[in-house]
Amino acid sequence: MHQAQRAVDPRRVIEELRELHRLTGGPDGAQRVAWTETWREARGWLRGKLEEVEGVERVETDEAGNLWATAPGESERAVLLGGHIDSVPNGGWLDGCLNTLAAVEVLRALAPRRRPVTLRLVDWADEEGARFGRSLLGSSACSGSLDPGEVRDLKDKDGVALPDALKENGVELERMKESHRQLENAAAYLELHIEQGPVLERLGLPLGVVLGTFGVERHAVRFTGQHAHSGSTPMDARRDAFIAAARSAVEFRDDAARRDDVRATTGFVNVSPGIVTAFNGFCEMSLDQRALDAEVLADMLAVAREASGRIAREEGCGVEWERLWRIEPRPFHPELIELADEAVREVAGRSHRLPSGPLHDAAEMAPLMPTVMLFVKSLRGLSHTREEDTPEEDIELSVQALYRLAEKALGWVEKRG
Prior knowledge:
The protein is built from 13 helices and 18 strands. By secondary structure, the chain is an alpha+beta fold.
């Protein structure tokens, strides 16, 4: 048996995942929403596990609420194992916490050994953004990309302001970016996650290697025509904003379908007047476009803008675009991708490389240091729901793969000096 399979105990990870779910979940799913009492309970439980790991000399919470465990090596240069224990409301038993608990198990195997490179685990605070709508909060503060002014006025559904919720958890918004000091000696970042999509299951594979996180262009597209009576207005005399929007949405979808591994989604549609006896003079819809290549993403946007303008003219309407949000593609490090591929093939026999549509904390680390992620299969592609699941044998393989990747990354960092 390979040393990795003796060194880590994947069954213990599954048992601890089940234990965490019993503590912080229920019939409706996981309830570890960041900055809540249940999340604090989960954090206390995790901290207890980390403090028991032989070779871990320091467990601390930084200014952004991120939890760190450090197993010093001969050098302060560090390989980081990242994850998040927070969940969405009624979430699954694996999203986030698998990466954290698998990393704890890898730490158990590697921390007691003499190592030339330091090994650190980080549990990022508020990856999901479930309470205040701002994802990657702790990791973006640590990376330095967070603008406190953009989140200061955020409130939850009960009207509680983000700065007040942070304060309840010992975090001051204005000091969150001081957590960047934790990355001073970081040399590589590794993260395991469930895929949250159907690709690996379709291929019949348990594990994959992530090429990077998609860039995102998110816009509101508004069409203006003239509403009028549905009975009295001939078809050739209509300026129907909904039809202009619907035709455009189909064009957006078809353009994405012609390309290789990109996404285009119309998520919401609002019409006015929205009554059965009139066609609509106004229609607003969203467009979310995603691609791993920045030039491809820019071309998708240009094509969508041209299509909407052309269709609006054909339907006698005007069209306006408003950018809601964007993030550039975050490709992962090619040498770490190769090492991850090796680790997956050693454990599972075959590997597959794929991009990540959802964002992860790794996207905040990728501009700062060599970064890579592993994916493990998600049944039916489901996540952010209590129906989320992955076969236990695949979870065990993912723990072994993360262990082997961590070993390889430690050696890689040592060689780079």
